Amino acid sequence: MTLEYKFSQEDAVIALGATTSDVIRIYGKTIVGILTPVAMTGTGFSFMVSIDGTTYVPFYNPYGVAIETVHVVDAARHIGVEFEDFMGVNYVKLVSNDTEAAERTITLSLRTL
Question: How far is Cα 10 from Cα 28, in angstroms, rounded to an integer?
Fold first, then answer.
């Protein structure tokens, strides 16, 4: 038996001079990958998450370790993400570890739960 998953994409935009993206609603889905643009000022991402879309908190795994990812600067990359980490989260903001020198669009690959 072959399992088929439906994937979709959502763009997270970090504005010029900012570190945090706009809100991405992932209700009923989970993040499975992140596609970074060719140029980034920051060298990694962490996440702010919310269940209600109002209160955002830093994202940690069950062991108390911050969920974050690192990519190579100035190189477009697809970064795989442990999909289980984002189950139960409805809203996400990406947080660059540096102020972005231009507007950046980061594409999230999402899988339907």
Answer: 13
- 3-class SS letters over 61-96: CCCCCECEEECCCCCCCEEECCHHHHCCCCEEEEEE
Distance of CA 88 to the CA centre of its chain: 15
Using CA atoms, how far apart are residues 4 and 97, in angstroms rounded to an integer? 35
Domain of residue 100, residue span? 7-112
Q: How many helices (H) and strands (E) does the chain have?
A: 0, 9
pTM (2 d.p.):
0.88
DSSP type of residue 22: P
Cα gap 31→21, rounded to integer Å: 15
Residue pLDDT, tens place only, 16-45: 999 999 999 999 999 999 998 988 888 888
- Is 97 inside a domain boundary? yes
Instruction: Look at residues 1, 5, 21, 24 and name the one whose alpha carbon lies nearest to residue 13.
Output: 21
Q: What CATH number does the domain containing 84 carry?
A: 2.60.120.260
